[in-house]
Amino acid sequence: MGKNKQRERGIPSKFTERLTEMFGVSLSAEISKTFVARPTTFRVNTLKARKEEIIEILNQNGFKFERVLWYKDSFVLKNKTKRELTDLEIYKQGKIYIQSLASMVPPMVLQPQPGEKVLDLTAAPGSKTSQIAALMNGEGELIANDNNKIRFFKLKHNMEMLGVSKPHPNPPLIGEGKDISSPYEGEVRRGFVFSLRMEHGSDLAREYPEYFDKILLDAPCSAEARFIDGDSETYGYWKEQKIKEMAYKQRQLLFAAWGALKPGGIMVYSTCTFAPEENEIQVTRLIEQYTNCEVLPIDLGLKKIAINSKFKNKEMNKDVIKKALRIMPTKEIEGFFVVKLMKKS
User: Fold this and answer.
1) Cβ atoms 169, 186 nearer than 8 A
2) For residues 164 and 292, what is the distance between their CA atoms, to the nearest angstrom?
3) pLDDT (tens digit per residue) in 79-105
4) 203 vs 121, 198, 238, 289, CA distance in Å?
5) Which residues are catalytic?
6) What is the extent of the structural domain holding 284?
7) Where are the beta strands (DSSP E) in 89-207?
8) Domain with 54 in it: what CATH number?
9) Percent of the chain at pLDDT above 90?
10) Is position 180 within any domain?
11) How far apart are CA 150 and CA 306, in angstroms?
């Protein structure tokens, strides 16, 4: 019993071994020091508020914060608690949204434009969906999908609170003979069509062959980058089998999403894990299958981690290793994998 307790207190040794194999002794040791609780970070919801208005209110209420260089609408809280921030009316009104810095990166890389057709394939709880809507300036078509009932309704609530969708007069309800997979739509700005769907991502993607200009697939993953040393709830579930399970799901989603992307379109694939099986190896398989898949460079000014080109005797595409963004975790930002892919015409 005591032995098990001791084991629970630390991050699994097998994970640490894998980290060393990926990055070498020195870099993996540096990464391990970042498995700590991070400060509260948030962004201005520009669908509802101006940055200047938010800064003024924060200053009036004694909040100290730091601007994020690579995303002008985001901030790091320096002197008060998350609870104190959520007590503010600007939070309750959906004018600011609490979100990890790493989570803000994929929409920035996707760069959705007003008027485009965009799909967020695994969207709940809606952090990135609402950010995408803001970057689109409320113009175009956006579909947000999640197939988990509990997460879907959290997504729906957040989209209404953040002004992405208006409350639907007759929302579909489970158990009342209504099809929950049908679009849940609402106008948010002139020329903006927003739909919420609750379907398996691979099924939904197949409904829209070569339809979308931009697709975000922030895939379900083993969440290794969210480990906090000493907090077994963040890593107690982890085992190598979990990586295999996630990799299988990701592959189904990734290949289906590729089919829904129009020629010339951009897809961003991201995870919050270190496992190459869920990252570079997944994208390598996609490139091997589709010769029209091109890896594009990413430059947000964030520090990257260099990974070894071979893992568990599996070769990884050199272009993916070179151009994908593996964020070097710090005490403010967690590790994240982001790759930007274009479907060549």
Assistant:
1) no
2) 33
3) 999 999 999 999 999 999 999 999 999
4) 10, 10, 28, 20
5) 272
6) 102-343
7) 96-98, 117-120, 140-145, 184-186, 192-197
8) 3.30.70.1170
9) 85
10) yes
11) 37
